User: Which sequence fits this backbone?
C-alpha cells in the first residue's frame, strides 16, 4: 500500500501549483461563458422593404424550381395513352390495362365520361387530366349535338310527396339507401312543404339534390296551416319538425321579453336557435 500512496502524495509547492492551475481554468471558463466575443458590427440592419424584397426573390426561385421539376401535360387523345404516359398522369397499372383491352376490341373513348367508365379512374384524377383531352373535331361536334338534343328534351316533373323510392333511384347519385332515407324523412315530418327540405337528408350532396329538384317538386295548391309565432304556446311550437321543447321555451321567453317577434331574423338572436335552418322553419310559422 505504501508504494501506491506515494503516487498521490504532493509536496506543498506542488499543491500550490495545482490550486493555481484550477483557479486559472475557472477564470477562463467564466470569461468564456459570460463574455460576448461577437463583433459589434456583425448585426446587419435590414429595413422591412429589404426583407420583403429578399423574401420575394427567394419565393420566385422556389417557384421556378417547382415549375422545372413538375411534369408539363400537353393536350392529348386519351385513346393513345401508353404505359409511360398513363404512369406520368397518375393512373394505376390496372386502369391502363383496362384502357388497352378496350382499345384492342377496336372501341374508342369519345368523352371524359367514357374514359372514366372504361378505366375506372377516380373523380379527382379525372378532373385533373380531362381538361387536356383532345378528341377529333367530328367527335366534338357529335357530342355537342347530343347535348343539344338532351337539353331540348322535356323532363317530366313528379310530385315529391307522392314519389316512391324506386322512382328516386332513377336519379344519378341516388341509391336504395338514400332513396329510402328520403321517403322515411318525408313520412316523419308529414310531407315536404318545399324542396329546400331535402337539405335535411343526410348524405345528399348539392349536385344530387339539384338533380332531384329538376325531376321532383312539391306540386299542387296545398295550403299548409301556419303557426302564429306571436301567439303560439310551447306545444304548438314543438309541432314544428325543427323545434324541440327547450327551444320552444326559449322562443316564448324571448317573445315575452321583447313584446313580440317582428321578423324571423330576430330568432337568430336566440343562442340555441339553428340559424342555418331558418329557411325551413319559417315554412311552418307566421308573424301574425
Assistant:
Amino acid at each position: 500500500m505504501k508504494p501506491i500512496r506515494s503516487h498521490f502524495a504532493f509536496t506543498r509547492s506542488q499543491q500550490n501549483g495545482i490550486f493555481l492551475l484550477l483557479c486559472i481554468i475557472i477564470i477562463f471558463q467564466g470569461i468564456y461563458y459570460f463574455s460576448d466575443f461577437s463583433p459589434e458590427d456583425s448585426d446587419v440592419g435590414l429595413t422591412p422593404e429589404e426583407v420583403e424584397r429578399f423574401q420575394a426573390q427567394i419565393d420566385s426561385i422556389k417557384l421556378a424550381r417547382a415549375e422545372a421539376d413538375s411534369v408539363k401535360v400537353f393536350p392529348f387523345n386519351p385513346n393513345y395513352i401508353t404505359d409511360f404516359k398513363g404512369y406520368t398522369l397518375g393512373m394505376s397499372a390496372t386502369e391502363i390495362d383496362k384502357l388497352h383491352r378496350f382499345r384492342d376490341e377496336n372501341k374508342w373513348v369519345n368523352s371524359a365520361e367514357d374514359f372514366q367508365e372504361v378505366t375506372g379512374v377516380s373523380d379527382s384524377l379525372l378532373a385533373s387530366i380531362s381538361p387536356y383531352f383532345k378528341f377529333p373535331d367530328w367527335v366534338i361536334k357529335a357530342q355537342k349535338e347530343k347535348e343539344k338534343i338532351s337539353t331540348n328534351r322535356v323532363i317530366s316533373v313528379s310530385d315529391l310527396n307522392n314519389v316512391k323510392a324506386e322512382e328516386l333511384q332513377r336519379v344519378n347519385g341516388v341509391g336504395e339507401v338514400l332513396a329510402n332515407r328520403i321517403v322515411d324523412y318525408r313520412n316523419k315530418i308529414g310531407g315536404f312543404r318545399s324542396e329546400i327540405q331535402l337539405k335535411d337528408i343526410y348524405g345528399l350532396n348539392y349536385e344530387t339534390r339539384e338533380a332531384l329538384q329538376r325531376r321532383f317538386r312539391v306540386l299542387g295548391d296545398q295550403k299548409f296551416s301556419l303557426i302564429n309565432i306571436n301567439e303560439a304556446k310551447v306545444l304548438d311550437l314543438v309541432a314544428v319538425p325543427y323545434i324541440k321543447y327547450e327551444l320552444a321555451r326559449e322562443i316564448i321567453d324571448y317573445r315575452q321579453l321583447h313584446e313580440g317577434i317582428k321578423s324571423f331574423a330576430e330568432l337568430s338572436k336566440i343562442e340555441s336557435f339553428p340559424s342555418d335552418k331558418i329557411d325551413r322553419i319559417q315554412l311552418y310559422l307566421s308573424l301574425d
